[in-house]
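tl;dr need the bound structure. longer version: we got a ligand (fe (ii) ion) that a collaborator sent over and nobodys looked at where it sits. i said id run it. heres the input, straight from their email, havent touched it
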Amino acid sequence: MALSLLSQLLHSCPVEDFYDAYYEKKYLQIKSANSCLFQFNTEMFKVALLKSAFTHPENIRANKEGNVYIAPLPMEPYQLYDWAMEKYNNGATLILNQVELNDDLSKQFAIDLGKDMKAYISLTAFLTPENSQGFSPHFDTHDVFVMQMSGSKEWHIGDFEIELATRRQGFLVSPEVMNSPHTIISMFDNDILYLPRGMVHWAFAEHLPSLHVTVDIDSVTYSDLLLELILQTSLNMTSKENKMIVNLFQRDFNGNLIPELEEVLKNLKFETKLFNLVLEKKAKIRYL
Ligand SMILES: [Fe+2]
């Protein structure tokens, strides 16, 4: 039987071990895992950048030592491309979101991995000049696989700022964290790094320009499922049932959810139809 894309990406780490020990819990570095699963190089980055300048200019930005640069849109596509390359030549990291929108192989990769992980997957590319740092210490609100495509990068990984961070939680942390104990790992061509959402990190390009692509994993959360459940139910319920749903959200004096709601949440995980509805909606939002 053919190995799933996730299992190929995890290389020497079995899928079950990944979910048991690492997923949303710990970082994981996988050496030399990506020799043929995903292809992207600096020339491809530049082509994707130009295509995005035409189709999705809002997906292009630059970062230098924590400062974010966004082009004043609307801007003529070639002018936007030149704006980005000028920022890069002055030491900024270029960030291209949703690479899959302009590249069929990337799109297939995102779709296949999304099926394996039961999540919505998007790809973001980062081109960093040598001897520079794009982002200040921060945490992301989605899990990522970092795929180092060329050059090298030194990653600094701290503790969880917030476990299971969600989209509404801010992601910047105090630069002081750089002085506290943390792990340092070096990423080279074809290495992969899994980082759970909420875990603090920052990175430096070393003596060569660095290109990495992050696989952004937008997991289906309980709140996604619950919202969809309420929406689907409300289409077809009486005011009496409606009141029952409202009652489910009441908490006890200690702020705990009532047991009935906990039960509903546990069972929602296994509602494949609901899961698929949420994924479909996430895909529609992203692929507009
Ligand atoms: Fe990040």
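gonna send this back to them w/ a short note. The mean pLDDT is 85.
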